[in-house]
């Protein structure tokens, strides 16, 4: 529904055409939020759809607080690095790029001028940025890919663990996120005899220490030396040398709220900036 531009439902697929038209005509600065994630192995205890299931909740909450329409155009993303593990589904980068571009093109065709893209899977980052760059030019629309905040105590604490313990995939951070958003799909009992499956050579492990004075240098060497495929980084599909049983869903709830509010603030502020001439048809 939408009345005088105010939506009461936010997923595009839930709206009637007149409701969408009402929103487009009467919301002063209509914004479409596009979310992407992945279908890929997430260790032994998290669902294959972890990234997509989470981004689904995340963008819907932001849409609700900003009177925006949201869309999650595809469940899979760019995950070739996980294909040694069953259940992973990957698109090529070209396919993902085209899904994003054609989604934007469709809304642009009907007059939407502002888009926010939100990504919850590291493997999609470059493709999303490329889509943003191409779409701006091709369809003359404003595109933002906001993320943050980076300066709060909580976000610094989490980022420190991501570096120190390589908590990027299926470790405590992501387990907490899953326990916050979809606890019914998490199988913690599978972790009874958990041990780290990470097989990174000792030399590279030393480069993970953010307390080193030469960290800026060694961290870049670390990333330049990681093999491309998950099975050469970890035996069990879980990156992170830290124990996922230590996941704290309350921390994840606080962290997600911080990020949601940051993007809501971004959108509210962005709406005060008129569409520049360069984007006019
Ligand atoms: Zn993930």
| Oligomeric state | single chain
Small molecules in complex: zinc ion
Give the CATH level 1 class of the domain at 2-149 and 255-279.
Alpha Beta
Distance between the termini: 29 Å
Order of helices and strands: EEHEHEHEHEHHHHH
User: Which regions are unreliable across 5 or more consecutive residues at pLDDT < 50?
Assistant: none
Number of DSSP-assigned strands? 6
Structure description:
- The longest helix has 22 residues.
- It is built from 9 helices and 6 strands.
- Helix 2 crosses helix 9 and helix 6 packs across helix 9.
- The chain has a domain of 173 residues: Creatininase (Rossmann fold).
- The protein is globular and about 60 Å long.
- It is α/β, with parallel strands linked by helices.
- The model has no long low-confidence stretch (mean pLDDT 96).
- Helices cover 42% and strands 8% of the residues.
- Helix 2 links the parallel strand 3 and strand 4.
- A 4-stranded parallel sheet has the order 4-3-5-6, sandwiched between helices. Strands 1-2 form a two-stranded antiparallel ribbon.
- The two termini are 29 Å apart.
């Amino acid at each position: 529904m939408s009345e005088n531009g105010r939506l009461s439902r936010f997923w595009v697929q839930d709206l009637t055409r007149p409701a969408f038209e009402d929103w487009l005509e009467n919301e002063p600065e209509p914004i479409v939020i596009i979310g992407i994630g992945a279908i890929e192995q997430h260790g032994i205890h998290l669902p294959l759809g972890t990234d997509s299931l989470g981004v689904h909740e995340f963008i819907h909450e932001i849409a609700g607080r900003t009177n925006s329409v949201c869309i999650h155009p595809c469940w899979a993303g760019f995950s070739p690095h996980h294909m040694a593990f069953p259940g992973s589904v990957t698109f090529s980068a070209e396919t993902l790029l085209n899904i994003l571009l054609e989604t934007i093109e469709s809304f642009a065709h009907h007059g939407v001028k502002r888009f926010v893209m939100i990504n919850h899977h590291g493997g999609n980052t470059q493709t999303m940025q490329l889509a943003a760059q191409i779409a701006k030019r091709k369809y003359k629309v404003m595109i933002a890919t906001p993320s943050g905040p980076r300066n709060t105590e909580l976000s610094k604490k989490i980022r420190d663990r991501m570096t120190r313990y390589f908590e990027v995939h299926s470790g405590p951070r992501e387990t907490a996120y899953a326990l916050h958003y979809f606890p019914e799909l998490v199988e913690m009992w599978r972790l009874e005899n958990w041990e780290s499956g990470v097989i990174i050579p000792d030399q590279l492990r030393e480069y993970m220490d953010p307390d080193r004075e030469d960290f800026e240098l060694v961290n870049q060497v670390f990333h330049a030396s990681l093999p491309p495929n998950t099975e050469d980084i970890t035996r069990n599909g879980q990156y992170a040398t830290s124990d996922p049983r230590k996941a704290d869903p309350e921390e994840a709830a606080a962290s997600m709220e911080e990020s949601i509010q940051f993007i809501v603030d971004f959108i509210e502020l962005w709406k005060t900036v008129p569409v520049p001439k360069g984007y006019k048809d």
